[in-house]
Structures are given as C-alpha cells and as structure tokens.
Design a protein that fits this description.
Blueprint (H helix, E strand, L loop, with lengths): L19 E11 L2 E9 L5 E9 L4 E6 L10 E2 L4 E5 L5 E5 L7
C-alpha cells in the first residue's frame, strides 16, 4: 500500500503544531521524492518557510532542502530533480537539487 502524504503532520518533521503549519504548495522533486513546505512565524513575526523531502513510496521524512524563494508559491518543482523560482529580473531561474541540506 502506498502511504498517503496528506497524513503526515508537522510533528513528523520535528516541529510543534502550535508554531508550524503545512503550506499547500508542495510538489514532486522527482517521481519518488516529494517536497513538503512547512511555514510558521520567526522571532520577528515574519513568515518563514522550510522545505523538506519525503520518500513517496514509504512516507519517510528526509532532510531539509535549501530553496531560495521570496514566498512558498514562487517555487515550482519540475519532477526531474530541479525547480523554478523567479529571478531578480522577473525571469524564471532553474535550480538543480543542491547536494547539501538546508541550514
């Protein structure tokens, strides 16, 4: 049976539900890897977003992934291991999956 990714909670990612929520702008980085976006407020009350990888076949939560975006809806995973964001000039920029986890 394939696990339902919508059954994961913020606790599964190591966050408290009082401080963090699942944002509705995830997607598939590859056919086997989903990107889940978690949001919350930082100490300065600005919204912050973090991106985490989930193995689709097992529902296993992996590490974070660093994605440079001004808002969570700007990021568009392409399914081949890369994603698009808006560049400084307004044109799309394609990013390959970084070999290092988010910091």
């Amino acid at each position: 049976m394939i696990p339902r990714l919508d059954c994961l909670s913020v606790e599964d990612f190591g966050y408290a539900p009082e401080e963090t929520f699942v944002e509705w702008c995830g997607g598939y980085l590859t056919p086997d890897t989903a990107v889940v976006t978690l949001g919350g407020e930082g100490e300065d009350e600005d919204e912050r977003f973090r991106y985490h990888l989930v193995e689709v076949s097992t529902g296993t939560v992996g590490g974070g992934i660093a994605i440079e975006a001004t808002n969570p809806y700007e990021r568009e995973p392409l399914g081949d291991g890369s994603w698009l964001t808006d560049g400084p000039d307004g044109h799309p920029v394609r990013w390959p999956r970084a070999p290092h986890p988010a910091g």
